[in-house]
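Second attempt. The first submission of shikimate dehydrogenase (NADP(+)) had a stray character pasted in from the spreadsheet, which I only caught after the job came back as garbage. Lesson logged: always re-copy from the clean sequence file. Corrected sequence (426 aa) follows.
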Amino acid sequence: MLAMELGAEYVDIEFKVADKFMRLLSGKKPENCKLIVSSHNYENTPSVEELANLVAQIQATGADIVKIATTATEIVDVARMFQILVQCQVPIIGLVMNDRGFISRVLCPKYGGYLTFGSLEKGKESAAAQPTVADLINVYSIKQIGPDTRVFGIIGKPVGHSKSPILHNEAFRSVGFNAVYVPFLVDDLAKFLNTYSSPDFAGFSCTIPHKEAAVRCCDEVDPIARDIGAVNTMVRRSDGKLVGYNTDYVGAISAIEDGIRASQPTDPSTSPLAGRLFVVIGAGGAGKALAYGAKEKGARVVIANRTFARAQELANLIGGPALTLADLENYHPEEGMILANTTAIGMHPNVNETPLSKQALKSYAVVFDAVYTPKETRLLREAAECGATVVSGLEMFIRQAMGQFEHFTGMPAPDRLMRDIVLTKT
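This time the job returned cleanly.
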């Protein structure tokens, strides 16, 4: 009441007390003040029918603006809120709380949401997973998002650490491509893709742990991605079909080759991987991509994994031996070996972890780590101390992202810009 008297443009009242507040007002609401009536559900996101009934009940209180905040138990819940935003005939704020609901905060203008909330700075959020105002404006260009904006994003679990939104959104802006790129925290990939199947959801990057499932979820898969058994890029064609690609293997292998060429004398006519013993740690999607790429370049590939059965499965596919991580500690059949870590060991926040001891690293001439947060992992730091040539996961990240950009937009990647963004802003 006092806020209204003092000239507040908006007053937000909880739905549970809205009737009581309206009686208190008794028709004396100032003309320049809009009344937001809010309903909060901290348990789940009800059905579309229940949400529509709630909208009607809130409208009936005399609200100028309807506000509904629900909770996501999985990311597909957000689709119901988008449906309500599109259908609603009155001004509506519709947000889904927590990390799985994050996309509701960024994509609401696409579906006609009245506003979204951002914190003034990191650590000052008024709700979990609330972005900062600076990120909404500078990373996601929220003021430019409209009904025709196409949606891209990175599918993963976890996904909050990813630098891909910073990189792709700025790259899209630089070429005038009307699109936004968001993080999708996904538990069930097939369910996610079935729910967000409209042409507006035009393409996805795919990271841990969904790269192998993505092969099964695509309508068509590029032959190389099928051979690898992992997809890190999905594009929705104009006919609605999802096509899967793998840009990881080119990104990683070219980064390792260039790292070797820059530090060691090599024969320019052949790959510096040819004939070398190449040890891959990890048997997931990225491990498969590295193993496939290294074998294609003539390397002798060895697979090491925490779970021996998975290591053996991949080793059989590429025709090489399999080891456990424990075996790898004492594995040094020759000098000058190449090591590639494709697991999440050492990734933020577990920055003190490493897949291999410093003692064991002494047998390797080249060490690559797919982890790029932090920029220098413990593995790379200790490998450098042992005298190895080190290749950062940032290089793979930049190169695979360029490949994705080209699949998403059909345009050449802005090479220099994307490299500058990764090196300065991430």
